[in-house]
Design brief:
Layout lengths: L2 H5 L3 H17 L8 H10 L8 H27 L6 H16 L5 H16 L1 H7 L13 H39 L4 H23 L8 H10 L1 H10 L1
Helix pairs in contact: 2-5, 3-9, 4-5, 4-9, 4-10, 5-9, 6-7, 6-8, 8-9, 8-11, 9-10
Length: about 240
């Protein structure tokens, strides 16, 4: 069997997953200036203003932006897969897919920040209050050390669903659909898997930026995130 079909088989999503998790544990996060999620957030920020018809704009944003992000990421993987002329080139789609998947997950930084807050609650509560902002958007000014630990743990559980379980679930679902569509031996499972992970991450980013009662433009994003996170949130709760 030639290298291309072998590396484009059902094992490729597993290789991409291993690359993504390995990069997360080794690097934690790409630099903010080139982080795709940060770049996507800068686009979302342009819609974070008052509109004469906020719900119509909000629905358009919630539908279009995640689809554009998913299509772009999937297109990058598809481009990397054409043409696989050598064993090195045949491995490229999995490497590219794993790297893109890595940008949608955040486990090492989440665990490190949670441990930092927990460790500071007794020795330096003020520092813990500053650090907990990376996990929770609530005002921590008046929180006691016990409340700080509780906020850190609760926020870590929520962020675990948003930043790890949901993107990987989207990747698994997309890769499965790609395989079911006859993609075994091709890059289709990788393309669909990365598109699924990026779509989920984009939906979650929209909700985190726009999904507040004070922002009517974010109503559709918040509802879409509720639907997308229904299973990942419960899967995360079950794991705990």
């Amino acid at each position: 069997m030639s290298p291309a079909p072998l590396l484009g088989s059902a094992l490729s999503p597993l290789a991409a997953l291993a690359i993504a998790v390995g990069l997360d544990l080794a690097v934690a996060e790409p630099p903010a200036r080139v982080h795709p999620v940060a770049l996507f957030g800068s686009v979302v920020g342009r819609f974070d203003r008052s509109w004469s018809r906020p719900r119509i704009v909000g629905v358009a944003v919630a539908v279009a932006l995640p689809l554009v992000a998913a299509a772009g990421a999937g297109g990058i993987v598809a481009l990397a897969a054409s043409p696989p002329a050598s064993s090195v080139a045949a491995a490229l789609p999995a490497v590219v897919a794993g790297t893109l998947l890595f940008t949608t997950v955040s486990l090492r930084m989440l665990l490190a920040t949670t441990a930092e807050v927990a460790g500071l609650t007794d020795s330096d509560p003020d520092a813990a209050r500053r650090s907990v902002r990376a996990l929770a958007g609530r005002d921590a000014t008046d929180l006691s050390p016990a409340d700080l630990r509780s906020a850190a743990v609760e926020s870590a559980a929520e962020n675990l669903a948003d930043g790890f379980v949901a993107p990987l679930g989207g990747f698994a679902l997309g890769a499965t659909v790609g395989l079911a569509a006859g993609g075994s031996g091709t890059a289709l499972p990788l393309v669909a898997g990365v598109a699924g992970a990026v779509w989920v991450k984009a939906v979650n980013t929209l909700d985190s930026m726009l999904g507040y009662r004070s922002k009517p433009v974010g109503w559709a994003s918040a509802r879409l995130d509720d639907a997308a996170m229904f299973l990942p949130a419960r899967a995360t709760g079950f794991e705990r």
